[in-house]
Amino acid sequence: MKLIEVQNYDEMSKLAAEIIIEQVQTKTNSVLGLATGGTPVGMYQYLMKDFTQNKTSYEQVITLNLDEYIGLEKDNPQSYSYFMKEQLFNHINIPENQTYLPSAKSVHDEEAGRNYEKLIETVGGIDMQILGIGENGHIGFNEPGTSFSSTTGIVKLADSTREANARYFTKMEDVPTHAISMGISTIMKSRQIVLLVSGVKKAPILNQLFQTDVNENLPASILKKHPDVTVIADQEALSILKEKKGSVFS
Ligand SMILES: O=P(O)(O)OC[C@H]1O[C@](O)(CO)[C@@H](O)[C@@H]1O
């Protein structure tokens, strides 16, 4: 994993957007894997700004999101489908039928994961996957303990994930208990991965990520086995890791 150290959230967001813009300009029909959550919001704002100023075109781009809650309609403001429209799709020239999120009718909808896997294959695989990391080390909604060979399917959210995401809901009971998520092996098939890490809350997990071996209790640790991963981390996220100089900073 290549680590790029930046000052703050804004620098992380700008750099991530620049990497995506370069990808889209170099390969106009790029397939982008996108993430939700608080981390990529600033990056999406930079993409919108660039679209307004420089007219980078997304006409031929295809996007595939990592995950979606189960039980929320697409027009529910807490759904990731709604999030992506609000944060990005409504503001750039990407055709709606080229933006995909996984979607499952219920926690028993096993077909949904298989269909998403087929879709990813049909579009030729993901060129560049953007990831955030959960405070417990999850990528997508693959919680600690998930098999590294997992493919897209229904996942149960860890209590800590529901608590972390409760900030977007009126009350804890409204936070869905399950989601559909790209699997870990699915994410690992992406040709290039960019992991964004910002804020002091992510400092412990970022430290663990660099200090521990690849193991299923820390889903993001599998990224160490991928040939092309760039981690962009800000000073707050790096605060614990940098105290332990000598490991990655020597
Ligand atoms: O960016 P946040 O809100 O800290 O969330 C971390 C990660 O957890 C998820 O919300 C779970 O999908 C990701 O989208 C995100 O990258």
From TrEMBL:
Originating gene: nagB
Record domain Glucosamine/galactosamine-6-phosphate isomerase: where: 11-226
Top-level taxon in the UniProt lineage: Bacteria
EC number: 3.5.99.6
Keywords: Carbohydrate metabolism, Hydrolase
Gene3D superfamilies given in the database record: 3.40.50.1360
Source organism per UniProt: Niallia hominis
Family according to the record: Belongs to the glucosamine/galactosamine-6-phosphate isomerase family. NagB subfamily.
Pathway: Amino-sugar metabolism; N-acetylneuraminate degradation; D-fructose 6-phosphate from N-acetylneuraminate: step 5/5
Function description: Catalyzes the reversible isomerization-deamination of glucosamine 6-phosphate (GlcN6P) to form fructose 6-phosphate (Fru6P) and ammonium ion.
Catalytic activity: alpha-D-glucosamine 6-phosphate + H2O = beta-D-fructose 6-phosphate + NH4(+)
UniProt xrefs under InterPro entries: Glc/Gal-6P_isomerase, Glucosamine6P_isomerase, NagB/RpiA_transferase-like
Record keyword Protein biosynthesis present: no
GO molecular function: glucosamine-6-phosphate deaminase activity
Top enzyme category: hydrolase
Catalytic residues, chain numbering: D67 (proton acceptor), N136 (for ring-opening step), H138 (proton acceptor), E143 (for ring-opening step)
Name the record gives this protein: Glucosamine-6-phosphate deaminase
